[in-house]
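@channel sequence for tomorrow's demo:
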Amino acid sequence: MEKLNKTNRNFLNRCIMSILSFMGLCSAPCLIECAYGTSSADYAFKGTITDEEGLPLSNVSVALFQMEREEILQNGAETLKQRILSQSDDGEYKSISNEKGKYSLSGETDGPYVFTLFYLKEGYEMKDTTLYWNQLTIKGKSGTYDGKGTATIDIVLKKEQNAGYGQN
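structure tokens (generated this afternoon):
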């Protein structure tokens, strides 16, 4: 009889805990520990931008988008270039490289955990790189809760080729 009461109590406790967890008031029993709310994480990108000869490039616009490259370019490369060079802030994060070619971007994200960086300077070809959370160096707590993902990305920009350049 006592075993039956203990079983009933365990069942009742599990039911109450499940109801409370749906309401966001406690964690469900026997589940992996989880945090309340939406997962988020800090990120930081830094690096050096140089030309093909290894000389640092200053005043390079660096823009960070939290989406895949194809989604960003769906309106065309020229539209993206204008968007990066504009002074408006429409969701992406921007930086400008200094006289030593150094840049840095940091912030917090609650997803998606894909980062596409575009590098743009007049007279040079636009370059981009895409990184996923698992490609970053993770510091702090595990996963995306209270962790920080970092990456050092050094970029070499090529000079644009003029349409008539070198032709007779």
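heads up for whoever presents: The two ends are 101 Å apart (CA to CA).
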